[in-house]
Amino acid sequence: MHLRDGSWHSIDWKSWMAFRGLQEPWSPLPHVTAGEHYFVICVIEDGRLFQIHPHRYLINDDGRIGDDGYFGVLSNSEAKRYEALNKRYYEYPQTRPLTDQEQKEFDAFRDRLWKSWLPSAAAIRELMTVLPALPEREDAAWHVLEASGLSRTSGQA
Fold this sequence. Notes:
Blueprint: E1 2-4, E2 7-9, H1 13-20, E3 35-45, E4 48-59, H2 76-90, H3 100-116, H4 121-130, H5 141-147
């Protein structure tokens, strides 16, 4: 789904994959103009919201995902450190695994970046009104909902 003008709009999976250039030739998404945009992928099965994957992108004039510079979340030195740790973390085969201290540092960077991708609490409340399913107490979707200010006990942000 794409957050546009305060409302969430569905995107079909094939169009999303083409926008991301995954398994489809690249093509722009309708209504996605240059600038910052929030998207969520919601995993819904059997009437239940299992997971929410937030995305925040800076879109170039041509409709492609641009270099967002981590949206200013990381300083230049932190970005360089994060990229070095990221390369080593995902390297295959892994020739030099991260130490425990490096893993903690890497996890802290990733957590800060992930939180910066979250839509606002108001956008999350709006998302909950348009979804055809709600999560159960144990579903991973609550990780995003709680990080965005929604409470499991009250159901309100």
